């Protein structure tokens, strides 16, 4: 394995992850890919529930587990056992960052909560990932991404007006909460470099859900109007949506008046720019159906590839609507070197969406089997 896999920007940082499912392990794998040593604590009976979150499976564990646990060391501890709690505290004493996303409140029940451990180990940065947050009436409530998409109103903003409440397919709250956790941990790490003390970082799926809908929520706070759903269109810009062509759909995003002028000319209808209902962004947004009714018949006269050429050459942002197979084959995906092959299993996974010195980090290793590193980590 190339040496560069072990010398990322977080090389020398030890992370103790008491995580399962998605948000906590995602925070851990971000740090692992960036060079930190990440020790993953799993329950002895079955380990992380995500090991079974398939199909598909590779080597007995789900692909999702491989993706969010690559490059980590796995140890098994039962936090209901006082001897194992002592082992965990020893690991915490030797760690820079602790990440946990166990059921809300359980760490406090067993004496390994943030206040207890940061008092005992002042340099420790203790990161908790909650469902609904560290305070409030739902503090102890459990939660998964669909619940928070529902509570956080995301499902009411996704889809067409006539659709039932609709989930956003990716686990956006789990994913963003893992990233917010890392951002908080790195900020606390920088603060510790100045003050010498660690501290407590909290993130939650609820806060992430609210952050996703901050635009509609801010607008509601001003207008008192509940936002409507617009399907594959923007709520504030037009034309800024998916259109059908002669064969395949295309996304066109003429986000300002200059781009709309270019679009109208590229589509052979410069007169649209003189139409009072389309003359500027406010008019187009207010008369979206009118704009779409003018554009759609024209777009149906040519193929997607034809329009991507004509509109793209005019400098108007546009893109094909790819399915996952098309994305996997896309030239840009491979040009950006987005995929990483895990050593051992040979599984291809998406790497971190960030580069250092123009190079995407390489995983330090494959995902661990349950308790694979017990002997190494607990050698003393």
Structure description:
It is built from 16 helices and 13 strands. The chain has 380 residues and is an alpha/beta fold. The chain folds into two domains: 3-212 and 335-377, Crotonobetainyl-coa:carnitine coa-transferase, domain 1 (Rossmann fold), CATH 3.40.50.10540; 250-320, formyl-coa transferase, domain 3, CATH 3.30.1540. The strands form four sheets. A six-stranded parallel beta sheet has the order 5-2-1-6-7-8, with helices on both faces. A hairpin with a 6-residue loop joins strand 9 and strand 10 (250-253). The longest helix is centred in the middle third of the chain and has 24 residues, at 172-195.
Write the layout of secondary structure elements.
Blueprint lengths: L13 E5 L4 H11 L3 E6 L14 E2 L2 E2 H7 L3 E4 L5 H12 L3 E4 L5 H4 L4 H7 L4 E6 L14 H7 L20 H24 L3 E6 H8 L1 H10 L16 E4 L6 E4 L3 H10 L14 H6 L1 H12 L4 H10 L4 E3 L3 H6 L1 H5 L3 E3 L6 E3 L23 H4 L3
Helix pairs in contact: 1-7, 7-8
Distance between the termini: 28 Å
Average pLDDT rating: 93
Strand order of the biggest β-sheet = 5-2-1-6-7-8
CATH architectural label of the largest domain: 3-Layer(aba) Sandwich
Largest pleated sheet: 6 strands, parallel
Which structural class best describes the helix and strand composition? alpha/beta
Task: List how many beta strands DSSP finds.
Answer: 13
CATH topology of the largest domain: Rossmann fold
Determine and state the CATH class of the largest domain.
Alpha Beta
CATH H-level homologous superfamily name of the largest domain: Crotonobetainyl-coa:carnitine coa-transferase, domain 1
Oligomeric organization of the protein chains: single chain
What low-confidence regions span 5 or more consecutive residues with pLDDT below 50? 1-5
SSE ordering: EHEEEHEHEHHEHHEHHEEHHHHEHHEEH
């Amino acid at each position: 394995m190339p040496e560069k896999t072990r010398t990322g920007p977080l090389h020398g940082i030890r992370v103790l992850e008491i995580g399962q499912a998605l948000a906590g392990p995602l925070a851990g794998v971000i740090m692992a890919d960036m060079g930190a040593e990440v020790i993953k604590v799993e329950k002895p009976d079955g380990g992380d529930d995500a090991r079974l979150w398939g199909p598909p499976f590779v080597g007995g564990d789900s692909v999702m587990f491989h993706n969010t646990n690559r490059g980590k060391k796995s140890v098994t501890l039962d936090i209901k056992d006082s001897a194992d709690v002592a082992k965990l505290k020893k690991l915490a004493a030797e760690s820079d960052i602790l990440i946990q996303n166990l059921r809300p409140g359980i760490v406090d029940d067993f004496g390994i909560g943030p206040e207890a451990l940061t008092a005992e180990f002042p340099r420790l940065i203790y990161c908790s990932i909650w469902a609904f947050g560290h305070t409030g009436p739902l503090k102890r409530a459990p939660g998964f991404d669909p619940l928070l998409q529902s509570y956080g109103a995301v499902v009411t903003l996704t889809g067409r007006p006539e659709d039932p409440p609709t989930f956003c397919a990716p686990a956006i709250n789990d994913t963003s909460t893992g990233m917010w956790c890392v951002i908080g941990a790195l900020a606390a790490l920088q603060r510790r470099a100045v003050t010498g003390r660690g501290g407590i970082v909290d993130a939650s799926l609820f806060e992430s859900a609210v952050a996703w809908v901050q635009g509609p929520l801010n607008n509601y706070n001003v207008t008192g109007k509940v936002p409507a759903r617009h399907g594959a269109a923007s709520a504030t810009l037009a034309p800024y949506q998916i259109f059908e062509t002669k064969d395949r759909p295309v996304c066109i995003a003429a986000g300002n008046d200059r781009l709309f002028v270019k679009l109208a000319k590229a589509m052979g209808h410069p007169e649209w720019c003189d139409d009072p209902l389309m003359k500027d962004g406010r008019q187009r947004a207010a008369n979206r159906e009118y704009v779409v009714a003018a554009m759609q018949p024209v777009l149906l006269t040519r193929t997607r590839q034809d329009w991507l050429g004509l509109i793209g050459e005019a400098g108007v942002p546009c893109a094909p609507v790819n399915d996952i197979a098309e994305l996997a084959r896309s030239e840009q995906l491979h040009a950006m070197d987005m995929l990483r092959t895990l050593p051992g299993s040979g599984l291809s996974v998406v790497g971190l969406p960030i580069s250092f010195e123009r190079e995407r980090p390489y995983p330090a290793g494959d995902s661990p089997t349950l308790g694979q590193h017990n002997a190494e980590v607990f050698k003393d």
